[in-house]
Amino acid sequence: MRAVTTREPLYTEQDRAELLALDVYRAGLCPLCGRPREVCTAPEGTYQIDTVWEVCQATRAVAEIQAGTYTDDNYPHRRAHLWGARLTRR
Known about the structure:
Mean pLDDT: 87
Number of strands: 0
Strand content: under 5%
Number of helices: 3
Structural class: mainly alpha
C-alpha cells in the first residue's frame, strides 16, 4: 500500500504575482533616497523637492556617549564595541 500526502502550496499564484510585483517596484527605487527613480532623476525643475532635516535622537545620544568614552590611547578595539539605545517614553 502506498500513502500519498497532498499539501496546500506554500504560495498561491496570487502570492507569487504580488511578490514579483513587489520585486519590480523595489527595483525601480533609488538606492540613495528610496523614491522612484523617475522622480529623483528627473530633469531639474520637473519636481519641487523640499528637504527636511531631522535628528535621530537615539543615534545622537550614542554618538555623544561614544565621544566622551573613547580617547586615542584607550580602547584599541573600539570599532568592535556594540552600542545601542534603549528608548523609553517619558
